[in-house]
Design brief:
This protein has 338 residues and is an alpha/beta fold. The chain has two domains: 132 residues, 2-Layer Sandwich (Nucleotidyltransferase, domain 5), CATH 3.30.420; 173 residues, ATPase, nucleotide binding domain (Nucleotidyltransferase, domain 5, 2-Layer Sandwich). Helices cover 42% and strands 18% of the residues. Helix 1 runs parallel beside helix 2 and helix 6 runs antiparallel to helix 7. The radius of gyration is 20 Å and the shape is globular. It binds 5'-O-[(R)-(carboxyoxy)(hydroxy)phosphoryl]adenosine and zinc ion. 5'-O-[(R)-(carboxyoxy)(hydroxy)phosphoryl]adenosine (KG4) binds next to helix 4 and helix 5.
């Protein structure tokens, strides 16, 4: 029997250093080192992120190889995140990947991070995978997109944010509420016992399939500031309701546009990807919508929602099959598009 290729994936686009080993479409290991240092600063500090990646990259790759129970000589190719992301962070992963490819004399594969989020649905977990074409709501700290996917290589962004990303809307709202960075998971947790209709915030009026979140952020800020003038304990006394109402506003904006995209394209196979797809309310609301309307919905496993190298390795696997290789002149790109 022909052995399936073994791909080492490297992800270093923001503040997580990750390495994964995949054989065919099956994960053998997926190690993620989070950088706690940024929570002290209320956001990712690019210079600190690059330094932490430099410290983490070799131990993380080493751990991924050990956990996969392979030798580095077994690796068929190395895939790395080319962009989009923070340039200094991307440079650490790309330099490592280039050196590893040269040292081991194996192919080098450059991967688009957003494409990686989408293709995480093709990691073999024994569950059904999306069929082409499908729509993917890709929501992360840096991006908010509706993507129409025709094949593993043919994808088209049909809606995007004109200002903040959905993850930023969560993180900036959390900052206003005095919650730690990244704020998305904290809002998600506090919202569980809150009333989604306790507070109303401004709704964006953006045409077609594009998104906007900056108006919502301003509306949240003004509401909180005016209430704090009357009651300095306003946030503590209303934290759960505030989180539930903010989360409801962000999720409603996302679902509204997704429904519009389904109407326009006629595509009824839906997927979500990116860090915000870990949000429990978004997952529940999407499941309700899919059940009501008869859409087929694909939600990734929790560990493949936020940044991870398994998604880079699976994209690398498809590129490996197409012999779509990079060479030593490849450079990272902070603003890489599809
Ligand atoms: O995809 P990701 O790990 O990194 C980027 O590529 O940006 O996404 C990170 C974003 C952050 O904004 C974080 O607050 C958000 O995903 N996030 C969540 C949740 N978990 C992570 N947002 C809402 N609810 C969550 N449970
Ligand atoms: Zn991401």
């Amino acid at each position: 029997m022909i052995k399936k290729p073994i791909i080492l994936g490297i992800e270093s686009s923001c503040d997580d250093t990750s390495a994964a080993i995949l054989q065919g479409q099956k994960i053998l290991s997926n190690i993620v080192a989070n950088q706690q240092i940024h929570s002290l600063h209320g956001g990712v500090v690019p210079e600190l992120a690059s330094r932490a990646h430099q410290q983490n990259i070799i131990p993380v790759v080493d751990a991924a190889i050990k956990k996969a129970n392979i030798n580095k000589e077994d690796i068929s190719a190395i895939a790395f995140t080319k962009g989009p992301g923070l340039l200094g962070s991307l440079l650490v992963g790309s330099s490592f990947a280039k050196s590893f490819a040269m040292g081991m004399n194996i192919p080098l594969i450059a991967v688009n991070h957003m494409q990686g989020h989408i293709l995480s649905h093709f990691i073999d977990e024994g569950k059904a995978m999306p069929e082409f074409p499908f729509l993917c709501l890709t929501v992360s700290g840096g991006h908010t997109q509706i993507v129409r996917i025709e094949s593993t290589i043919n994808m088209q962004v049909i809606g995007t944010t004109i200002d903040d990303a959905a993850g930023e809307a969560f993180d900036k709202s959390a900052k206003i509420l005095g919650l730690p960075y990244p704020g998305g998971p904290h809002i998600d947790n506090h919202a569980k016992k809150g009333n989604i209709h306790a507070f109303e915030f401004g709704k964006p009026k953006i045409k077609e399939l594009d998104f906007s979140f900056s108006g919502l952020k301003t509306s949240i800020l003004y509401k909180i500031q005016s209430n704090l003038q009357k009651n300095p304990r306003f946030i503590e006394e209303n934290l759960e309701d505030l989180c539930a109402s903010i989360q409801h506003s962000i999720v409603s904006i996302l679902l509204n546009k997704l429904e519009k995209a389904i109407k326009i394209t006629g595509i009824k196979q839906l997927a979500i990807a990116g860090g915000v797809s870990a949000n429990s309310y978004l997952r529940v609301e999407l499941e309700k919508l899919a059940k009501d309307k008869g859409y087929q919905l694909y939600i990734p496993k929790f560990e493949y929602c936020t940044d991870n190298a398994a998604m880079i390795a699976i994209t690398g696997y498809f590129k490996y099959l197409d012999k779509d290789f990079a060479d030593q002149s490849e450079t990272p790109s902070a603003r890489l598009s599809f």
